[in-house]
Amino acid sequence: MYKNPEDVKWGTFRVGELFSITRGTNFPKKDWIEGNMPIVTTTGLNNGVTEFISNVNDKVSKNAITVAGTGTVGSAFYQEFSFNIGEWVLSLDLKDRELNKHLALFLTTSISHQKDKYSYAYKLGNERLSKQFIMLPITDSGKPDWEYMESYMKELEKEVRPEFNFKSHEITDDREIEDMEWEEFFIEDLFEVQRGKRLIKKNQVKGKIPYISSTGLNNGVDNFISNEKGVRVYDDCLTVANSGSVGVVFFHPYKFVASDHVTHIKRKGLTKYMYLFIATTMNKMKDNYSFNREINDLRLKREKIILPVVSEDMPDWEFMEQYMKRVENKLMEDYK
């Protein structure tokens, strides 16, 4: 049985004793090109990730802890994979041992405990963070007890891990993508298409309904609101970003309010799995667009997507459902 935190010895350490610190550089958003590598900024959301880009600045790291130097000052996150270090972000690398997920989660919690002393006017730079004290469990010799921190987080993870109750889908169609006939369809020939409605930030009333905008993160959720008048509400459909992360497609099985920066795509009778298949296909459209070339209503309606078919004019909806259920079965099996 692992010891509770109150049963172990604790000591104080300056961050600079334990970590080497790298500060990010200015990398204006206008220079970002959409891609697969996260750029970590000073936001307190999405593990600090603001966007995924393909170009890199001169500060890239991996397997490190990031700390916001402004914005949500002092917020700390673990970055397991390669990332761009945004401006006013401090990247921490342990000096004497390799970081891992469980150790990092303990350390980010300790570092984040100090954030209340900072503000927009009291920023956090390399020198100030280096001198910052954090409290950690220690061994009898007074060194950080890395083994305890790691084992404690592993045990905690077991306690909070949700029960796994997934029941595998029954599969009746084993055909693969390459076995199918494919045809092009205009979006307007298959779907109802309507753009959301403008609702500026100052008029948004806090609530529980997702507000979908053109962000490429959080399934497009930009806020949670309670507005009911002067808005367009949808559910069980896709959204396509017209600006911002242009061309990004998400599925929404819940009620939401759509901004004028997204267009809703809906067809009666489609299931979650059919929509997820279509979303994957439609996401390929984004390569045709950019910050400077947005998707207007006419462009979107006349955009073509390629789908598997049972005949020249009929998409094979059943194949799409079965294929995505097979994908889900495989993902859930790997999760176990």
Structure keywords:
about 325 residues; alpha+beta; Adenine-n6-DNA-methyltransferase TaqI, Chain A, domain 2; 2 domains; 4-stranded antiparallel β-sheet; 4-stranded mixed β-sheet
In short:
By secondary structure, this protein is of the alpha+beta class. 23% of the residues lie in helices and 29% in strands.
CATH superfamily of the largest domain: DNA methylase specificity domains
Radius of gyration: 24 Å
Strand numbers in spatial order across the main sheet? 2-9-6-7
CATH topology of the largest domain: the name is Adenine-n6-DNA-methyltransferase TaqI, Chain A, domain 2
Query: Can you write the helix and strand succession as a string?
Result: EHEEEEEEEEHHEHEHEEEEEEEEHHEEH
Biggest sheet details:
4 strands, antiparallel
Average of the residue pLDDT scores = 90
CATH class of the largest domain: Alpha Beta
Low-confidence stretches: none
Q: Give the amount of beta strand, in percent.
A: 25-35%
User: N-to-C terminal Cα separation, in Å?
Assistant: 24 Å
Under the CATH scheme, the architecture of the largest domain is Alpha-Beta Complex
Helix content: 10-25%
Q: What class would the helix/strand composition place it in?
A: alpha+beta
Total helix count? 8
Give the number of domains: 2
Shape: globular
The beta-strand count equals 21
List strands and helices in order, with pairings.
Elements: E1 10-14, H1 15-18, E2 19-23, E3 34-40, E4 49-53, E5 60-61, E6 64-68, E7 76-79, E8 83-85, E9 89-94, H2 101-112, H3 126-131, E10 133-137, H4 146-160, E11 182-186, H5 187-190, E12 192-195, E13 206-212, E14 221-225, E15 233-234, E16 237-241, E17 249-252, E18 256-258, E19 262-266, H6 272-282, H7 297-301, E20 304-311, E21 314-315, H8 317-335
Helix pairs in contact: 2-4, 6-8
